[in-house]
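User: Let's play a game. I give you a shape written as tokens, and you guess the letters that built it. Ready? Here's round one.
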């Protein structure tokens, strides 16, 4: 599995990362969502450089121009709800892609251990296609692993690009181990932060991406 950390090179991506981390800018949900979306657009351009292309021609008012176009059949997948703005950024670029959606949430099992539960999925067939999975926070890697394995029930992609805004070394190694260092998977990170806290949130990170996008949710334990 190839791992690409886009923050290792200077680009405008760093400006978007700074804004989604800034506690003052985070007070504007619209701006936060748009910055996550812009990260998705930037990453989509980078991913596009790894795709397959075929030559074609286009008729202009003055003649015929040759151009290489993407030949991959793309499926964009995301994990609800935090993944939606990042997914939309990819969709802005890959506007003809098919789409897949998976709902998943964290909970403590009977042993008091954190686990990810997937409850719903809507996806096209992905066999032989290029799969792009967008999930903004790769904290433990569990959501990405569960989501990816669930998607494999719809076929085996020719290549998978797993894309996140912020990851941890722990999550990267967990995903690598789970996927058995598969050569047909590439993990893309806009940044890699050093640690997780006791609640399994990335530090320094940015907080809860879903809450910052869409408002604070009520946890099951808090419901009347």
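Assistant: Ready! My guess for every position:
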């Amino acid at each position: 599995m190839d791992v690409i950390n886009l923050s290792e090179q200077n680009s405008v991506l760093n400006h978007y990362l700074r804004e989604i981390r800034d506690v003052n800018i985070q007070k504007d949900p619209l701006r936060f969502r748009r910055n996550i979306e812009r990260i998705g657009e930037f990453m989509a351009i980078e991913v596009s450089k790894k795709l397959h292309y075929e030559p074609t021609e286009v008729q202009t008012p003055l003649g015929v121009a040759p151009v290489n176009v993407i030949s991959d059949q793309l499926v964009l997948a995301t994990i609800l709800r935090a993944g939606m703005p990042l997914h939309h950024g990819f969709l802005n670029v890959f506007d003809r892609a098919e789409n897949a959606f998976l709902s998943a949430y964290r909970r403590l099992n009977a042993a008091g251990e954190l686990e990810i539960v997937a409850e719903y999925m809507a996806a096209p067939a992905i066999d032989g296609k290029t799969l792009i999975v967008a999930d903004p926070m790769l904290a433990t890697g569990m959501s990405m692993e569960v989501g990816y394995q669930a998607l494999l029930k719809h076929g085996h992609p020719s290549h998978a690009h797993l894309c996140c805004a912020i990851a941890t070394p722990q999550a990267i190694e967990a995903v690598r181990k789970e996927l058995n260092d598969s050569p047909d998977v590439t993990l893309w990170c806009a940044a890699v932060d050093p640690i997780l806290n006791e609640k399994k949130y990335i530090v320094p990170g940015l907080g809860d991406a879903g809450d910052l996008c869409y408002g604070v949710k009520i946890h099951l334990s808090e419901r009347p």
